[in-house]
Amino acid sequence: MTATILDGKEFAARVRAKVADHVTLLKEKHSVTPGLAVVLVGEDPASQVYVRSKGKLTVEVGMASFEHKLDADTSEADLLALIARLNADPEVHGILVQLPLPSHLDSDLVINSIDPSKDVDGFHISNVGLLGTGQKSMVPCTPLGCLMLLRDHHGNLSGLNAVVVGRSNIVGKPMAQLLLGDSCTVTIAHSRSKDLPAICQGADILVAAVGRAAMVRGDWIKPGATVIDVGINRIERDGKTKLVGDVHFDSAAQVAGAITPVPGGVGPMTIACLLANTVTATCRAHGLAEPEGLTV
Ligand SMILES: NC(=O)C1=CN([C@@H]2O[C@H](COP(=O)(O)OP(=O)(O)OC[C@H]3O[C@@H](n4cnc5c(N)ncnc54)[C@H](OP(=O)(O)O)[C@@H]3O)[C@@H](O)[C@H]2O)C=CC1
Ligand SMILES: Nc1nc(=O)c2c([nH]1)NC[C@@H]1CN(c3ccc(C(=O)N[C@@H](CCC(=O)O)C(=O)O)cc3)C=[N+]21
Protein backbone atom coordinates (compact mmCIF):
# COMPACT_ATOMS: atom_id res chain seq x y z
CA MET A 1 0.00 0.00 0.00
CA THR A 2 1.21 3.50 -0.69
CA ALA A 3 -0.20 6.15 1.61
CA THR A 4 -2.11 9.26 0.59
CA ILE A 5 -0.01 12.31 1.42
CA LEU A 6 -1.86 14.77 3.65
CA ASP A 7 -0.61 18.03 2.18
CA GLY A 8 -0.40 20.44 5.13
CA LYS A 9 1.18 23.14 3.04
CA GLU A 10 -1.77 23.27 0.68
CA PHE A 11 -4.37 22.92 3.45
CA ALA A 12 -2.66 25.67 5.46
CA ALA A 13 -2.82 28.02 2.45
CA ARG A 14 -6.59 27.43 2.33
CA VAL A 15 -6.92 28.17 6.06
CA ARG A 16 -4.91 31.37 5.63
CA ALA A 17 -7.11 32.43 2.71
CA LYS A 18 -10.17 32.01 4.94
CA VAL A 19 -8.42 34.01 7.66
CA ALA A 20 -7.54 36.75 5.15
CA ASP A 21 -11.20 36.97 4.01
CA HIS A 22 -12.34 37.42 7.58
CA VAL A 23 -9.64 40.00 8.27
CA THR A 24 -10.94 42.01 5.29
CA LEU A 25 -14.47 41.82 6.69
CA LEU A 26 -13.33 42.91 10.17
CA LYS A 27 -11.45 45.88 8.71
CA GLU A 28 -14.11 47.01 6.24
CA LYS A 29 -17.28 46.41 8.28
CA HIS A 30 -16.06 46.90 11.82
CA SER A 31 -12.88 49.02 11.45
CA VAL A 32 -10.96 46.45 13.48
CA THR A 33 -7.50 45.21 12.44
CA PRO A 34 -6.52 41.99 14.20
CA GLY A 35 -3.06 42.29 15.75
CA LEU A 36 -0.62 39.57 16.78
CA ALA A 37 2.35 40.22 19.08
CA VAL A 38 5.20 37.71 19.08
CA VAL A 39 7.79 37.86 21.85
CA LEU A 40 11.18 36.22 21.32
CA VAL A 41 13.72 36.10 24.14
CA GLY A 42 17.25 35.25 23.04
CA GLU A 43 18.73 34.22 19.72
CA ASP A 44 17.90 30.54 19.18
CA PRO A 45 18.32 30.20 15.37
CA ALA A 46 15.32 27.85 14.87
CA SER A 47 13.09 30.20 16.90
CA GLN A 48 14.26 33.15 14.81
CA VAL A 49 13.23 31.31 11.63
CA TYR A 50 9.74 30.60 13.02
CA VAL A 51 9.25 34.13 14.28
CA ARG A 52 10.26 35.59 10.92
CA SER A 53 7.92 33.27 9.07
CA LYS A 54 5.03 34.03 11.48
CA GLY A 55 5.57 37.78 11.02
CA LYS A 56 5.57 37.50 7.22
CA LEU A 57 2.39 35.41 7.08
CA THR A 58 0.65 37.65 9.65
CA VAL A 59 1.15 40.65 7.37
CA GLU A 60 0.19 38.60 4.30
CA VAL A 61 -3.30 37.90 5.73
CA GLY A 62 -3.75 41.62 6.46
CA MET A 63 -3.20 41.59 10.21
CA ALA A 64 -0.91 43.83 12.23
CA SER A 65 2.30 42.15 13.40
CA PHE A 66 4.19 43.35 16.48
CA GLU A 67 7.57 41.69 17.05
CA HIS A 68 9.39 42.07 20.36
CA LYS A 69 12.92 40.72 20.40
CA LEU A 70 14.52 40.73 23.84
CA ASP A 71 18.08 39.91 24.92
CA ALA A 72 18.75 36.40 26.22
CA ASP A 73 19.51 37.84 29.68
CA THR A 74 16.24 39.83 29.96
CA SER A 75 14.92 39.74 33.53
CA GLU A 76 11.63 38.10 34.40
CA ALA A 77 10.34 41.47 35.68
CA ASP A 78 11.05 43.13 32.31
CA LEU A 79 9.37 40.32 30.38
CA LEU A 80 6.31 40.42 32.68
CA ALA A 81 6.16 44.21 32.25
CA LEU A 82 6.13 43.81 28.45
CA ILE A 83 3.33 41.22 28.68
CA ALA A 84 1.33 43.55 30.94
CA ARG A 85 1.65 46.30 28.29
CA LEU A 86 0.54 43.93 25.53
CA ASN A 87 -2.39 42.70 27.68
CA ALA A 88 -3.55 46.31 28.01
CA ASP A 89 -2.97 47.28 24.35
CA PRO A 90 -6.28 47.32 22.41
CA GLU A 91 -4.43 46.89 19.09
CA VAL A 92 -3.03 43.55 20.26
CA HIS A 93 -5.55 40.68 20.09
CA GLY A 94 -3.10 37.79 20.28
CA ILE A 95 0.14 37.30 22.23
CA LEU A 96 2.64 34.50 21.62
CA VAL A 97 5.76 34.07 23.73
CA GLN A 98 8.11 31.82 21.77
CA LEU A 99 9.16 28.70 23.71
CA PRO A 100 11.50 27.45 25.02
CA LEU A 101 12.49 30.45 27.15
CA PRO A 102 16.02 30.81 28.55
CA SER A 103 16.32 28.72 31.73
CA HIS A 104 16.43 31.68 34.17
CA LEU A 105 12.81 32.50 33.22
CA ASP A 106 9.86 30.59 34.70
CA SER A 107 7.84 29.72 31.60
CA ASP A 108 4.70 28.69 33.55
CA LEU A 109 4.68 32.05 35.33
CA VAL A 110 5.28 33.93 32.08
CA ILE A 111 2.57 32.05 30.11
CA ASN A 112 0.06 32.46 32.94
CA SER A 113 0.64 36.22 32.96
CA ILE A 114 -0.84 36.49 29.44
CA ASP A 115 -4.50 37.60 29.35
CA PRO A 116 -6.21 34.24 28.60
CA SER A 117 -8.41 35.89 25.95
CA LYS A 118 -5.21 36.93 24.09
CA ASP A 119 -3.44 33.59 24.64
CA VAL A 120 -3.47 32.45 21.00
CA ASP A 121 -1.16 29.52 21.86
CA GLY A 122 -3.80 28.17 24.26
CA PHE A 123 -1.14 27.44 26.89
CA HIS A 124 -2.59 29.53 29.77
CA ILE A 125 -3.83 27.37 32.62
CA SER A 126 -7.40 28.65 32.18
CA ASN A 127 -7.46 27.71 28.48
CA VAL A 128 -6.04 24.28 29.35
CA GLY A 129 -8.84 23.83 31.90
CA LEU A 130 -11.53 25.04 29.49
CA LEU A 131 -10.32 22.64 26.78
CA GLY A 132 -10.17 19.76 29.28
CA THR A 133 -13.77 20.37 30.34
CA GLY A 134 -15.08 20.81 26.80
CA GLN A 135 -15.72 24.55 27.10
CA LYS A 136 -14.94 27.29 24.58
CA SER A 137 -11.23 28.15 24.79
CA MET A 138 -8.21 29.10 22.75
CA VAL A 139 -6.98 25.77 21.30
CA PRO A 140 -3.21 25.11 20.94
CA CYS A 141 -2.19 25.66 17.31
CA THR A 142 -0.30 22.44 16.53
CA PRO A 143 -2.98 20.04 17.85
CA LEU A 144 -5.69 22.18 16.22
CA GLY A 145 -3.88 21.91 12.88
CA CYS A 146 -3.57 18.14 13.28
CA LEU A 147 -7.28 17.85 14.10
CA MET A 148 -8.23 19.87 11.01
CA LEU A 149 -6.19 17.51 8.81
CA LEU A 150 -7.73 14.45 10.48
CA ARG A 151 -11.32 15.71 10.22
CA ASP A 152 -10.75 16.64 6.58
CA HIS A 153 -9.44 13.17 5.77
CA HIS A 154 -11.81 11.03 7.87
CA GLY A 155 -14.94 13.15 8.16
CA ASN A 156 -15.86 11.60 11.51
CA LEU A 157 -13.31 10.32 14.05
CA SER A 158 -15.84 8.74 16.44
CA GLY A 159 -14.79 5.36 17.82
CA LEU A 160 -11.36 5.29 16.17
CA ASN A 161 -8.35 4.17 18.23
CA ALA A 162 -5.95 7.10 18.50
CA VAL A 163 -2.44 6.83 19.92
CA VAL A 164 -0.52 10.01 20.75
CA VAL A 165 3.19 9.45 21.35
CA GLY A 166 4.41 12.34 23.54
CA ARG A 167 2.80 14.02 26.57
CA SER A 168 4.05 17.59 26.43
CA ASN A 169 1.77 20.44 27.44
CA ILE A 170 2.15 22.07 24.03
CA VAL A 171 1.44 19.08 21.76
CA GLY A 172 0.77 15.63 23.25
CA LYS A 173 -1.71 16.45 26.02
CA PRO A 174 -3.89 18.94 24.13
CA MET A 175 -3.83 16.63 21.07
CA ALA A 176 -5.20 13.81 23.25
CA GLN A 177 -7.93 16.14 24.59
CA LEU A 178 -9.04 17.11 21.09
CA LEU A 179 -9.15 13.49 19.92
CA LEU A 180 -11.15 12.56 23.02
CA GLY A 181 -13.47 15.47 22.24
CA ASP A 182 -14.05 13.89 18.83
CA SER A 183 -14.87 10.56 20.56
CA CYS A 184 -11.70 8.64 19.73
CA THR A 185 -10.45 6.00 22.15
CA VAL A 186 -7.22 7.70 23.17
CA THR A 187 -3.94 6.27 24.41
CA ILE A 188 -1.08 8.57 25.40
CA ALA A 189 2.37 6.97 25.20
CA HIS A 190 5.67 8.44 26.41
CA SER A 191 9.26 7.58 27.26
CA ARG A 192 8.24 5.18 30.05
CA SER A 193 5.67 3.31 27.97
CA LYS A 194 6.29 -0.43 27.62
CA ASP A 195 6.41 -1.94 24.15
CA LEU A 196 5.78 1.24 22.16
CA PRO A 197 5.64 -0.62 18.81
CA ALA A 198 2.74 -2.79 20.08
CA ILE A 199 0.87 0.27 21.38
CA CYS A 200 1.29 2.02 18.02
CA GLN A 201 0.16 -1.07 16.10
CA GLY A 202 -3.30 -0.67 17.67
CA ALA A 203 -3.75 2.84 16.31
CA ASP A 204 -6.17 3.83 13.56
CA ILE A 205 -4.76 7.33 14.10
CA LEU A 206 -1.13 7.67 15.19
CA VAL A 207 0.24 11.07 16.21
CA ALA A 208 4.00 11.21 16.79
CA ALA A 209 5.19 14.22 18.86
CA VAL A 210 8.43 13.03 20.38
CA GLY A 211 11.42 14.91 18.97
CA ARG A 212 13.36 11.81 17.84
CA ALA A 213 14.24 11.60 14.18
CA ALA A 214 12.56 8.71 12.31
CA MET A 215 11.73 6.78 15.51
CA VAL A 216 8.38 5.38 14.31
CA ARG A 217 9.01 2.73 11.64
CA GLY A 218 6.68 1.15 9.10
CA ASP A 219 6.39 -2.08 11.11
CA TRP A 220 4.92 -0.11 14.07
CA ILE A 221 1.98 0.96 11.94
CA LYS A 222 -1.36 -0.75 11.44
CA PRO A 223 -2.03 -1.18 7.70
CA GLY A 224 -4.22 1.66 6.48
CA ALA A 225 -3.74 3.84 9.59
CA THR A 226 -3.49 7.63 9.42
CA VAL A 227 -0.11 8.90 10.61
CA ILE A 228 0.39 12.50 11.75
CA ASP A 229 4.07 13.40 12.14
CA VAL A 230 4.53 16.43 14.38
CA GLY A 231 8.29 16.02 14.83
CA ILE A 232 10.70 18.63 13.51
CA ASN A 233 14.26 17.32 13.74
CA ARG A 234 17.28 18.84 12.05
CA ILE A 235 19.81 16.17 11.07
CA GLU A 236 23.10 16.26 9.18
CA ARG A 237 23.21 14.16 6.03
CA ASP A 238 25.91 14.32 3.37
CA GLY A 239 27.20 17.52 4.97
CA LYS A 240 23.81 19.21 4.66
CA THR A 241 21.14 19.98 7.26
CA LYS A 242 17.89 18.18 6.58
CA LEU A 243 14.50 18.44 8.29
CA VAL A 244 12.93 15.10 9.24
CA GLY A 245 9.96 14.06 11.35
CA ASP A 246 9.57 11.55 14.17
CA VAL A 247 8.31 8.99 11.63
CA HIS A 248 10.52 7.06 9.22
CA PHE A 249 8.63 8.35 6.21
CA ASP A 250 9.65 5.85 3.53
CA SER A 251 8.83 2.72 5.51
CA ALA A 252 5.70 4.24 7.08
CA ALA A 253 4.28 5.34 3.72
CA GLN A 254 4.37 1.70 2.56
CA VAL A 255 1.95 0.67 5.31
CA ALA A 256 -0.13 3.71 6.31
CA GLY A 257 -3.35 4.77 4.57
CA ALA A 258 -2.43 8.45 4.91
CA ILE A 259 0.57 10.34 6.25
CA THR A 260 1.78 13.91 6.74
CA PRO A 261 5.23 14.75 5.33
CA VAL A 262 7.96 16.76 7.06
CA PRO A 263 8.41 19.48 5.95
CA GLY A 264 5.06 20.48 4.46
CA GLY A 265 2.74 18.72 6.92
CA VAL A 266 1.91 19.83 10.43
CA GLY A 267 4.37 22.77 10.55
CA PRO A 268 2.53 25.05 8.10
CA MET A 269 -0.78 24.14 9.77
CA THR A 270 0.58 25.37 13.11
CA ILE A 271 1.20 28.84 11.74
CA ALA A 272 -2.13 28.93 9.88
CA CYS A 273 -3.91 28.00 13.14
CA LEU A 274 -2.03 30.72 15.01
CA LEU A 275 -3.47 33.25 12.55
CA ALA A 276 -6.91 31.61 12.82
CA ASN A 277 -6.75 31.86 16.62
CA THR A 278 -5.85 35.54 16.35
CA VAL A 279 -8.96 36.20 14.25
CA THR A 280 -11.05 34.17 16.71
CA ALA A 281 -9.62 36.18 19.64
CA THR A 282 -10.34 39.46 17.81
CA CYS A 283 -13.97 38.48 17.16
CA ARG A 284 -14.47 37.44 20.80
CA ALA A 285 -12.86 40.67 22.07
CA HIS A 286 -15.29 42.75 20.00
CA GLY A 287 -18.38 40.59 20.54
CA LEU A 288 -18.53 39.73 16.82
CA ALA A 289 -19.51 36.46 15.13
CA GLU A 290 -16.60 34.05 14.74
CA PRO A 291 -15.76 32.65 11.31
CA GLU A 292 -16.89 29.05 10.68
CA GLY A 293 -14.36 26.25 10.62
CA LEU A 294 -11.38 28.06 12.10
CA THR A 295 -11.59 26.50 15.53
CA VAL A 296 -13.04 23.32 17.12
N1 LIG B 1 5.25 20.92 13.63
C1 LIG B 1 5.04 21.79 14.59
O1 LIG B 1 4.33 22.75 14.41
C2 LIG B 1 5.64 21.57 15.93
C3 LIG B 1 6.58 20.60 16.07
N2 LIG B 1 7.12 20.31 17.26
C4 LIG B 1 8.05 19.18 17.30
O2 LIG B 1 7.37 18.06 17.87
C5 LIG B 1 8.27 17.28 18.63
C6 LIG B 1 7.76 17.17 20.04
O3 LIG B 1 7.70 18.45 20.62
P1 LIG B 1 7.32 18.69 22.16
O4 LIG B 1 6.05 18.01 22.47
O5 LIG B 1 7.47 20.12 22.41
O6 LIG B 1 8.55 17.89 22.86
P2 LIG B 1 8.89 17.55 24.37
O7 LIG B 1 10.34 17.27 24.38
O8 LIG B 1 8.31 18.55 25.29
O9 LIG B 1 8.11 16.17 24.61
C7 LIG B 1 8.50 14.99 24.00
C8 LIG B 1 7.64 13.86 24.47
O10 LIG B 1 8.10 12.66 23.81
C9 LIG B 1 8.31 11.65 24.78
N3 LIG B 1 9.44 10.80 24.39
C10 LIG B 1 10.75 11.12 24.32
N4 LIG B 1 11.49 10.07 23.95
C11 LIG B 1 10.63 9.04 23.78
C12 LIG B 1 10.78 7.69 23.39
N5 LIG B 1 11.96 7.17 23.12
N6 LIG B 1 9.67 6.93 23.33
C13 LIG B 1 8.46 7.44 23.63
N7 LIG B 1 8.25 8.72 23.97
C14 LIG B 1 9.32 9.50 24.06
C15 LIG B 1 8.60 12.36 26.08
O11 LIG B 1 8.26 11.49 27.14
P3 LIG B 1 8.44 11.89 28.70
O12 LIG B 1 7.33 12.85 28.99
O13 LIG B 1 8.30 10.58 29.40
O14 LIG B 1 9.79 12.50 28.81
C16 LIG B 1 7.71 13.60 25.96
O15 LIG B 1 6.44 13.35 26.49
C17 LIG B 1 9.62 17.96 18.47
O16 LIG B 1 10.30 17.38 17.38
C18 LIG B 1 9.27 19.40 18.15
O17 LIG B 1 10.27 20.06 17.43
C19 LIG B 1 6.72 20.97 18.40
C20 LIG B 1 5.78 21.98 18.33
C21 LIG B 1 5.20 22.38 17.08
N1 LIG C 1 4.90 29.65 22.00
C1 LIG C 1 5.20 28.80 21.03
N2 LIG C 1 4.25 28.39 20.16
C2 LIG C 1 4.54 27.51 19.15
O1 LIG C 1 3.64 27.14 18.37
C3 LIG C 1 5.89 27.05 19.01
C4 LIG C 1 6.84 27.51 19.94
N3 LIG C 1 6.48 28.37 20.92
N4 LIG C 1 8.11 27.08 19.85
C5 LIG C 1 8.57 26.20 18.79
C6 LIG C 1 7.46 25.33 18.25
C7 LIG C 1 7.74 24.79 16.88
N5 LIG C 1 6.76 25.38 16.01
C8 LIG C 1 6.74 25.27 14.62
C9 LIG C 1 6.00 26.09 13.81
C10 LIG C 1 6.06 26.01 12.44
C11 LIG C 1 6.87 25.08 11.83
C12 LIG C 1 6.96 25.05 10.34
O2 LIG C 1 6.38 25.86 9.65
N6 LIG C 1 7.72 24.09 9.76
C13 LIG C 1 7.92 23.96 8.34
C14 LIG C 1 9.42 24.00 7.98
C15 LIG C 1 10.15 25.17 8.54
C16 LIG C 1 11.66 25.05 8.40
O3 LIG C 1 12.14 24.81 7.27
O4 LIG C 1 12.34 25.14 9.43
C17 LIG C 1 7.39 22.62 7.85
O5 LIG C 1 7.28 21.70 8.69
O6 LIG C 1 7.09 22.50 6.68
C18 LIG C 1 7.59 24.23 12.63
C19 LIG C 1 7.53 24.30 14.00
C20 LIG C 1 5.95 26.19 16.74
N7 LIG C 1 6.27 26.17 18.02
From TrEMBL:
Sites where the protein binds NADP(+): 166-168, 232
GO molecular function list: methenyltetrahydrofolate cyclohydrolase activity; methylenetetrahydrofolate dehydrogenase (NADP+) activity
Pathway entry: One-carbon metabolism; tetrahydrofolate interconversion
GO biological process, any: purine nucleotide biosynthetic process
UniProt KW keywords: Amino-acid biosynthesis, Histidine biosynthesis, Hydrolase, Methionine biosynthesis, Multifunctional enzyme, NADP, One-carbon metabolism, Oxidoreductase, Purine biosynthesis
EC number assigned by the record: 1.5.1.5, 3.5.4.9
Stored Pfam families: THF_DHG_CYH, THF_DHG_CYH_C
Domain spans labelled Tetrahydrofolate dehydrogenase/cyclohydrolase catalytic: 6-121
Catalytic activity: (6R)-5,10-methylene-5,6,7,8-tetrahydrofolate + NADP(+) = (6R)-5,10-methenyltetrahydrofolate + NADPH; (6R)-5,10-methenyltetrahydrofolate + H2O = (6R)-10-formyltetrahydrofolate + H(+)
InterPro entries: Aminoacid_DH-like_N_sf (IPR046346), NAD(P)-bd_dom_sf (IPR036291), THF_DH/CycHdrlase (IPR000672), THF_DH/CycHdrlase_cat_dom (IPR020630), THF_DH/CycHdrlase_CS (IPR020867), THF_DH/CycHdrlase_NAD-bd_dom (IPR020631)
CDD domains (UniProt xref): NAD_bind_m-THF_DH_Cyclohyd
Record domain Tetrahydrofolate dehydrogenase/cyclohydrolase NAD(P)-binding: where: 140-284
Annotated GO CC locations: cytosol
Quaternary structure note: Homodimer.
HAMAP family in the cross-refs: THF_DHG_CYH (MF_01576)
Family of the protein in this entry: Belongs to the tetrahydrofolate dehydrogenase/cyclohydrolase family.
Role of this protein: Catalyzes the oxidation of 5,10-methylenetetrahydrofolate to 5,10-methenyltetrahydrofolate and then the hydrolysis of 5,10-methenyltetrahydrofolate to 10-formyltetrahydrofolate.
The protein's name: Bifunctional protein FolD
